[in-house]
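Researcher: Hi, I'm a grad student and pretty new to this. My advisor asked me to get structures for two proteins we've been looking at. I'm not sure of the right format, so I'll just paste the first sequence and hope you can take it from there.
Model: That works fine. Here's the first sequence with its structure tokens right after it:
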Amino acid sequence: MKSNLSLEDAYEKCCKKILDNNDDINKILRIIKSVNKNLALSAGTIRNTIWQVLEGQKQVIMSDIDIVYYDNKSSKEEENKIEKELYKINSNYKWQVKNEYYMNQYNFINEPKFPSLYDAISHFVETPTCIGAYVR
């Protein structure tokens, strides 16, 4: 039977299913939402989880937890404040928080600021990490 889903939609559906079925990912998503509904889980945390499932490996959070948000009105210090709040809730994870509003200063110095979180994530240097998730 032929699917009406585009390849992109099929990938998105597969990724959502993998993330929805991972207790650690769901716990992390609930934690970040409790701190700020505009925070998103991104990059290596998601890539590694999906890779582990597709390769039949044990699912383990292996690295830092990449949390991103986009706020053109907050200072850089807000990242540290959010990180500290996340550590208070759960110190078992290695939280790393970044306001993507400022990230063009690191890898894209000659580029204008990113207009949105979606745009910033799409510019992550490693293509498989160009993904974000959050709980609505």
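Researcher: Oh nice, that was easy. Here's the second one.
Model: And its structure:
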Amino acid sequence: MFKPLLMVGLLAASPVMAQPGAADRHHYPAGQAATVDFSLQERSPRGGRTTSIYRTYRPNVSFDGGPRVECVVAVPGGGGVAPGTTRRITLTCPVPLREGQTFEAFERDRPVGTGVVTAPL
């Protein structure tokens, strides 16, 4: 005679639903320049900078609170990003990025800016 199998834990293993609109978000592969809105913080006891950043700037960046990676900044149209301002720039990183992803930029252990990945221009 066959014994019925006990199905334990099947409900707990159900798939997780994606957030509404998540499929419509743009994804950037690792190494591709991503468009971001970047806010450079003014110098304070917590961090920030006293000088502008330019296209050769290479901050350590943490996406969504994850591990830090070195990225490369490009400022479209030249010029720079002054402390206390927000500007749309491109960021090239060795990890894939997605639209809506937030990040924090660091110089050593000092936070210097924040931003969000946006759709391509």
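Researcher: Is there anything I should tell my advisor about the second?
Model: You could mention this: The domain at 27-117 is CATH 2.40.30.10 (Elongation Factor Tu (Ef-tu); domain 3).
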